[in-house]
Hints:
By secondary structure, the chain is mostly helical. Helices cover about 25% and strands about 5% of the residues. A two-stranded antiparallel sheet has the order 1-2. It is flat.
Amino acid sequence: xxxxxxxxxxxxxxxxxxxxxxxxxxxxxxxxxxxxxxxxxxxxxxxxxxxxxxxxxxxxxxxxxxxxxxxxxxxxxxxxxxxxxxxxxxxxxxxxxxxxxxxxxxxxxxxxxxxxxxxxxxxxxxxxxxxxxxxxxxxxxxxxxxxxxxxxxxxxxxxxxxxxxxxxxxxxxxxxxxxxxxxxxxxxxxxxxxxxx
Length: 197
């Protein structure tokens, strides 16, 4: 949004000098007053021609025009009044944007006095451990090596499977007798059984 200052500068109304801003404000107020005056005059002109009378002919009027020379005494005229609402201008409060200085924070480098630690080399005495001989008559166990008989185990060989090369089998032809069926007449004896009464 433009402020008043930006609007005046964009219109080029400000000139150099100390009273430039006052004259710019005067120009701006004059411009607004003239625009409001023009709007009021235009609204008054619209109000004067607000009410219009429109003649509307009905079916009887059309018949009258056609047969005017026959029936002159039948005359019906219908009047319709149309009222149109025209908006009337009214004063509106206009917000004027005045430039206000806004404080924007920006970083400023400030030297801070920081205490520095200065190392002082001080000699420190470190105690060293020195071996001291102390007589303590304590019995000490001395291990003497003793010979122990070692039994040697006898190892027996156990048969284990091992790979053997086997030749591939080949086909062997065996002679077999072939039987041929021949129809031979066979005599069958039937025994007669006698029944007892």
